[in-house]
Amino acid sequence: MENNREYHIGRTDFDAFVHAVGSEIEQAQVRLIAAANAQMLFHYWKMGNYILYHQNLQGWGSKIIKQLAKAIRFNYPEKKGYSERNLTYMCQFARSYPLNGQFTQELTAQIQSADCQSLEITQEVPAQIQDVEKTVSAIYRMEIREIEKVFLKSPVAKINWASHMVILNGSLPLGIGFWYMKQAVEM
């Protein structure tokens, strides 16, 4: 007969083991949700920049957003989050957080005084209607992976979309909204 210890673990040890595994599962879920949120925000930021750029380049008005929302709904009925209202928020999000080298607290004063009505185009980009990432990369003259790294490290990527909509709709100057965002992330 083999040693009974090989087959039985003490109740206290087993409970601690189960608790440790459960805790790791919960922490992994939080990290996954945070990573998914940050990627969604980066996608929305890219989409906003892409739409704004082509509006500027093609001379399109705001009706293009309504047409785009309708076309997405028709061509991709299973995709959610691309209503006219949300596409408009994506554009406002991109305008509000331009890539001035990085999205950091040091930019609060710059963001506060930024003209949120126009997208600063740093380079004339060839019309690349077929590729969002290449267009955004060309606008900012950076590889998309570098832009993504900067974005994902910023406080902008660490709060949820609903909170961004509250900040964008709020009456506070953007710099103060950015300060609150950074405080929320730190707390």
Write the layout of secondary structure elements.
Layout: H1 11-58, H2 63-75, H3 84-96, H4 108-113, H5 132-140, H6 144-153, H7 161-169, H8 174-186
Characterization of this structure:
There is one protein chain. This protein has 187 residues and is mainly α. It has eight helices and no strands. It has helices at residues 11-58, 63-75, 84-96, 108-113, 132-140, 144-153, 161-169, 174-186. The longest helix is centred in the first third of the chain and has 48 residues, at 11-58. The relative contact order is 0.12.
Question: For the CA atoms, what is the radius of gyration?
Answer: 22 Å
What amount of the residues lies in strands?
A: under 5%
Task: Name the structural class.
Answer: mainly alpha
Share of residues in helices:
55-70%
Attribute tags:
single chain; 187 residues; mainly alpha; 65% helix
A few lines on this structure:
By secondary structure, the protein is an all-alpha fold.
